[in-house]
Write a structure and sequence with these properties.
2 domains; 13 strands; Rossmann fold; seven-stranded parallel sheet; 377 residues; alpha/beta
């Protein structure tokens, strides 16, 4: 690969401090790349973590509502296609940013890092439509069909697709009929470290319905001798606070600063993560990096990260409240402490360095393949 290839990373938007956002920042830093995003809010990472070359498309606030955002972003990124074609190395992340991909061309690479095929287009379309106001549901059906066509055309313009897990790779094959290369997301194993062991379990999942944090809160309401701390934010925050009302053993904090998050993970007994069919799931890896076992669910990406009975406990798929309560009872502080070394060793498989090395290999192989093809012309 030529050293003069300047990379540009296109990402949907930065509105939270999530694993996908952190991955884009890590990759851009490693490649000295420009970032193009649909918009950025104050709730995401500090400005100092972004490259000076960040280009914010600044999608209007009125178009950022969940029902409108995917369509508005896809239209905005589609207008970036001709500008993207001027670069040699284009990397796309998200569900709308891939629409900026120009046609495949000699001497250039389109690489898509797929966190998941858009679930609102495929396996969770009915859930997405049902969640819309009644007046919008009928209009949503043809709009989603048009979005799916545009998305499939964008995927056809990719030279290489990278999946964040084997679980996502299977979805890509099922819904998009493309193969992909698995490169797990990076965990900053130097920042998530053991701090001690205090008397609480911790949930760090985003507060959205499919993360099933309500089941965690429900389980702890019936275990007043076990303490739960819930951090993160999302649409479910008000409902979860109502659910936890009166339970002195449950502390729902919402978003917290990065330093506080690291301290909470590093001092917990264990973390709990019950997301439904998670694409990958960075929270469990961050927990293990801090030497903390994970009570998770035996489905999705957790099957690739958590080793049952060695780095945590996986409850049956479906995440019944009774199964969670049983797992909490079995994971005593002493047992959690005994898992520390295995957790730290497991998290090392998902280090920042391994991610960067793997992505650079993908880029190099893509570029070398194009050069070889040019030589056969």
């Amino acid at each position: 690969m030529s050293e003069d290839w300047q990379a540009t990373v296109f990402h949907d938007y930065f509105a939270i401090r999530g694993g996908g956002e952190r991955l884009v920042l890590t990759l851009a830093e490693a490649l000295d790349a420009e970032i193009v995003c649909g918009y950025r809010t104050a709730d995401t990472f500090d400005a100092a973590m972004f490259p000076a070359s960040l280009r914010d498309l600044n999608l209007p606030q009125s178009l950022r509502r969940p029902g409108l955002r995917p369509l508005a972003l896809s239209a905005r990124f589609a207008r970036e296609r001709s500008r993207a074609a001027q670069g040699k190395l284009r990397i796309f992340s998200g569900v709308a940013a891939p629409l900026a991909a120009p046609k495949r061309a000699h001497g250039a690479c389109n690489i898509f890092y797929c966190h998941t095929p858009p679930r609102f287009l495929f396996d969770q379309r009915a859930h997405f439509v049902d969640a819309l106001p009644a007046a919008q549901r009928l209009a949503a059906i043809p709009l989603l069909a048009a979005y799916e066509r545009a998305y499939r055309h964008a995927i056809a313009r990719m030279d290489v697709i990278v999946a964040n897990s084997e679980n996502t790779r299977a979805r890509i094959r099922q819904y998009l009929d493309r193969d992909s290369i698995v490169v797990h997301p990076p965990c900053d194993t130097e920042r998530f470290i053991w701090r001690g062991q205090k008397d609480y379990f911790l949930s760090t999942a985003r507060l959205a319905p499919l993360k099933r944090v309500d089941r965690i809160v429900t389980a702890f309401r019936d275990m007043p001798d076990k303490n739960l701390v819930v951090v993160s934010g999302g649409s479910e925050l008000p409902a979860l606070r109502r659910l936890a009302a009166g339970a002195r053993n449950i502390d729902i904090r919402g978003w917290v600063a990065e330093d506080e998050l690291h301290a909470l993970i590093g001092n917990a007994i264990a973390t709990i993560y019950l997301a439904e069919d998670e694409d990958f799931g960075m929270s469990p890896v961050e927990s293990m990096a801090a030497g903390k076992p994970v009570i998770g669910v035996s489905e999705g990406g957790l099957l690739e990260t958590v080793i049952p009975e060695e780095t945590g406990i996986l409850v049956p798929a479906g995440a019944a409240v009774a199964d969670l309560a049983d797992a909490v009872g079995r994971l005593t502080p002493a047992r959690a402490l005994a898992m520390r070394s295995a957790c730290e060793a497991r998290a090392a498989h998902f280090s920042r360095e391994k991610f960067i090395d793997a992505m650079k290999a993908v880029i190099r192989n893509c570029a070398d393949g194009l050069h070889a093809a040019n030589g056969r012309q």
